[in-house]
Amino acid sequence: MHITQVESEHQRGTLVASLRGAVIASCQAGPESPLNTPAILASLALSAELGGAQGFRVDGPANVAAIRQVSPLPIFGINKVDRDGYDVRITSTLADALDVVAAGANLVALDGTQRERPFGETLAQIIAGLHAVGVPVMADISTQAEARAAVDAGADMVGTTLAGYTPYTEELDRFGPAFGLLAEIRDLPVPVVVEGRIWTTDHIAACFAGGAYALIIGSAITVPELITRRFVTAARQAQAQRGAVSA
Length: 247
Ligand SMILES: CC(=O)N[C@H](C=O)[C@@H](O)[C@H](O)[C@H](O)COP(=O)(O)O
Description:
Oligomer: single chain
Low-confidence stretches: none
InterPro entries: Aldolase_TIM, NanE, RibuloseP-bd_barrel
CATH architecture: Alpha-Beta Barrel
Number of domains: 1
Protein name: N-acylglucosamine-6-phosphate 2-epimerase
Bound molecules: N-acetylmannosamine-6-phosphate
Order of helices and strands: HEHEHEHEHEHEHEHEHH
Largest sheet: 8 strands, parallel, barrel
EC number: 5.1.3.9
Number of strands: 8
Family: Belongs to the NanE family.
GO molecular function, one term: N-acylglucosamine-6-phosphate 2-epimerase activity
Helix content: 40-55%
């Protein structure tokens, strides 16, 4: 249902304001993951909520609907679809975005880069389509220029999600959050969300000290394969060091 511009601004502003300082759990599982079913992702989300998470980032209508059934917390819906000929993947069309809204998402996160989108849609058109139904938009970006363009296109928030993952930022250090990009965009007129590669409490302190408005944490909360691998790798390194000392 379309609402007036004033109603939309009020609705979006209230929701964004409620997320200041939040830790949002990204509850996603790759196609190869044993956790990749809506019911299991809903349980993961509930566990994160018990731990104090204040919202979720969720991929696809089925997973959004399952989590909406178990929690009233804000959901950033995304809709990852691979389409031949396009590099954009995270919620690349307005129809993909509206599908996760219909499933229960309160906000939409989408690829906020300047790359070409299917059906010739522009970032500004997709954002306007979501604003027409009162839904705030977080633009996932990889550079300062993209962040500025996303703000000009109407984005309510920007997220550092794609730093290091676009072909032209692949040279960036992929260990730890995108602190360099955060420093470049912290003074934008919209909230900046640090998303991706947050693994330690020191990271969290540094993100907020660096101007982050909220954080989205995925793997370190909801991907046991990667959590386990981190500990196993540390164990192997410790053993190798002990071996080197005693040899
Ligand atoms: C680059 C990209 O497509 N990132 C995706 C965005 O939805 C997810 O795969 C990440 O898990 C998410 O950004 C959270 O990051 P991390 O799992 O590092 O906390």
